[in-house]
Each structure stands twice: as C-alpha cells, then as structure tokens.
Amino acid sequence: MSKHFIKPLAASLLLAFGAAEAATIQILSRDPAGVGFNDPTPVAPVGGNPGTTLGEQRWNVYRYVADIWEKQLTSDVPITVSAGWEALTCDAGSAVLGSASAWNIWINPPGAAHANTLYPQALANKLSGVNQSEGQEDDGSGYGNVDIKTQFNVNLGQPNCLAGSGFYLGLDGNAGTQVNFVATLLHELGHGLGFATFTRGNTGAMLAGYPSVWDHYLMDNMTGKRWVQMTNAERVTSANNGRRLVWTGGEVKAKVPEVLALGTPSAKITAPSPLVRALAIGTASFGPAITAAGTSAEVMPVVDQADGVTGLACDPLNAINKLAVAGKIALVDRGVCGFTVKVKNAQLAGAKAVLIVDNANDNPPPGLGGADPTITIPAARISKVDGLALKDAMKARSRTRSGLFITLGLDMSQYAGADLLGRPYLYTPNPYASGSSVSHYDTSAFPNQLMEPFINSDLTTVLKAPKDLTFHLLRDIGW
C-alpha cells in the first residue's frame, strides 16, 4: 500500500476559517467494462434498491451508504473513495468479503490535536481545510491521491466462493442468509475514515516511527498506560490482553450509558473463597438470555462417555453423568458435535445450565452459535485456560458434589462491552487476529455495534447514540 508522510511547513497558513460544511463523498469507480459496477447482469429490484442490473445495484448501495456518512460528517474538502470489485481470496466454505483503508496518511496536518502523529487523509483534510494530496505526484497506481481505497469480493456467493451467501444489495436490512452489503460497506468506510490504528499490534511497531491518532486514546487497564507511552513489547502484550484495552475518548465515554445495555454477562465463581472471580464468557445465540438474577448452582463436569472421550456430551448422558449434572451447571468440552447438541443432552439430563470449555486458546471466548427452540437452559462458552482451572479445582470431587459454585448472570456494575469506568473495550483476542485486533470494538458490546469485527444481523444504519458509538469515536479523534 502506498502512503505519503509529509510534515507541512508554515502550517498555520493552511488553516481554514469558519464553520465546516457537511461532507461530500465522491465515489470513483476503477472497474473495467462488464465488471463490478459495470456488470450488465439483469436483476430484479430488491429491498428498496431500484437497480435492474447487478452493477447498478452495487452502485446504488455505495451511494446510499455514502449519503449516510455525509449526513454525519463535516468537512470543507470532498472525501474521495476509490471503489472496485475484485476476485478476493475465497473457497466454497469461506471468503474475504472486502476491505477499506486510508490510502494516504499524514503527519502533523494543520489543526491536529496531537503533534508528531499520523492521521488518515480524509481526517487530515477536514482538520486543515485543505486537500493534503492536491498537487502531489501520483504513486503510479492510478488512485494514489484518493482518501480511501475499497475493494469487495466480486465472486462472493458463487459455487467456489462461500456458495449461496452472496451480498444482499437491498437497502432495508432484510438480508436473511446473505451478507448485508449496506452494513458491510458502512463498517469498512468507518475504517477508511479513521476507525483504525496504523500501529502493528503483532509487533508493536509504529508506522514510520510515529503513533496513530488512534493510539492516543488506547488505555491498558492492566498497566495504566496508553499505547503512546508503551514500548513495542508492551503494545504486543496489550494487543492480546482480552478485555483489558479500553477507549478513553471523552465523547464515547459520555455516550456509553445511552447506547450500551447495563449488565455484562459473566460466570462468577462464588465458592470456594480462594477462587472467587468473574470469568469472561461468550454467550449463546440459542436458549434463554442470561439475566441479572442469574442461574446459580454447583458445577459438575461431564466425564467418561461411552465413546471413550471425556466431556463432549455429544451422546445422551449415561447414568453416572445424569446423576452428576442433575440440578447443577454442567461443564462440557467443545468438539465433535454442535453446541446445541451438547446443551440439549445436558438439559435432558436435568442440568440447570451449561458451560462449554473451548478447545482453542482464544481469550476472551467467542459466543456459541446455533439454533434450537427446544433448549430452555442458559449456556455460555469459557476459555480453555479457565476451563482447565475449573477442572483442576474439581479434582477431589465426589460423584455428585464438587464444592465449586458459579453464578451465570449479568454483572450490573458494568455496561455490556465496557469496563467499570464506562470505557468501551477494544477487540484484543488471544491469539492476535490480523486485520481485526485493536481496530474494532469488543464482541461483548450489547447491543451489537457497527464496528465490531463481525457484521451482525441486528445492526441499523444509525451511526450515533442511542443506537451506536461509531460516530462518537470518530468525533474523539477529530471528526
């Protein structure tokens, strides 16, 4: 990726005076004839999108999403977006949907709040009132002077590219099993506008030796340091520190109570006293929601199944396991069969709830997917590390008692997706997820936020409170 780093001279001469105007977003297609926006394939209008060719519908979504962003942002300098549809990595079961990023990055743009700091071009232009790349030599790519470069997978939904799950090009959000392109494009343009760091979380190295404007607002709750105060090694640790890295910007913090629900899901160990603490969990898409009242019970593991594998609960529980988990929280291992199968088997054995121990080292643990309307007990996923600790604590159990008690419920002292001070968590899984870590909100946010690492089906096109925090974070960095 080509990027320019320029420290303007006589910066004060470039400052714009007066109130900024509503933003204008210009979409520049780089697609050849017959491809992408120029695809002549006939299609029926869908979900408020009146286009009658595939290319027209794609363009209409781009324009629709650009209009949404225009209404939120102010800038005297037009925002240029180079857009293209390309054959990105994919196979029958998975696919890269697309991406967007700032193409040019600037240090010390006039009007910036932080010195010796990198800013994406669209924001640098807004702050200075001047197009920073105006008159600059093109890098040879043909779109090197644009603000944001986007690319999306032209083959998505075809038999060899996530078959049957193409982009939904309607404007009404009714995507069903398809990928909602409106939400996807809203999300990606957010990155191009500045919802990202240019610092490498896997190495801790700052781009060209300078921090991103993003880094000034990252605080690690374990060290009390901001990213701009850390060494490379400290940033690497912080980027893998599940639910410890928070956003400290004042506007976002002020809006958290309006946007995020009060109550953070957790599995709290209540006894024995030396083990008392709250475990991070991933909630289930099936069964009853976890409540403030919670489900409290003794924990017992599922063991010694007929297939000779410990704890999977992929088959109906045998008599010994039924006796162990009846009236208890069943501890089950991930693997072999679906989550709903495991939980349903535990439910039929009389369990009050289920904790599924991850078999990967992910921390914090992701949610549990699946659907089964007959499941009536709550379930959650815990990390592999926490699961091993619980099993170790139950080594001396009897067939019906472990002495380990947990409450699966909501911690009402925290907003879902924020720390105790109301600062939202950034996404910092372990292991590090390239392209996702640090530059998204954490998946524990509820309601789901546009700038989480995954596009959820319940997203709206509202970018600010009371629905979403995206616009308020961009305001923190200068928008």
Outline the structure in words.
Keywords: Glycoprotein, Signal. Residues 306-390 form the PA domain. This is Peptidase. With 479 residues, this protein is of the alpha/beta class. It has three domains: 11-194, no CATH class; 196-261 and 417-479, no CATH class; 262-414, Glucose Oxidase, domain 1, CATH 3.50.30. The chain contains nine helices and 18 strands. The protein has helices at 54-72, 121-128, 181-193, 232-239, 250-259, 319-325, 339-348, 384-393, 470-476; strands at residues 25-29, 79-86, 98-102, 105-107, 118-120, 148-153, 167-168, 179-180, 218-220, 245-247, 262-271, 277-280, 282-283, 295-301, 329-333, 353-357, 379-382, 405-415. The strands form five sheets. An eight-stranded mixed β-sheet has the order 12-11-18-14-15-16-17-13, with helices on both faces. Helix 1 (54-72) packs across helix 3 and helix 5 packs antiparallel against helix 9. It is globular, with a radius of gyration of 25 Å. It starts with 24 loop residues before the first strand and ends with a helix. The model is unreliable at 1-18 (pLDDT under 50).
List the defining traits of the structure above:
alpha/beta; Glucose Oxidase, domain 1; 9 helices; 18% strand; PA_domain
Report the sheet-strand fraction: 15-25%
- Stretches with pLDDT under 50, minimum 5 residues: 1-18
Structural class call reads: alpha/beta
Using the alpha-carbon principal axes, give the shape: globular
From the alpha-carbon coordinates, what is the Rg to the nearest angstrom?
A: 25 Å
Question: What is the helix/strand order?
Answer: EHEEEEHEEEHEHEHEEEEHEHEEHEH
Please, what is the average pLDDT?
A: 92
Tell me how many strands there are. 18
Report the biggest beta sheet as strand number plus sense, adding barrel if it closes: 8 strands, mixed
Number of domains: 3
Q: What's the tally of helices?
A: 9
**What's the end-to-end separation, in Å?**
24 Å
The level of helicity is 10-25%
Kindly report the spatial arrangement of strands forming the biggest sheet: 12-11-18-14-15-16-17-13
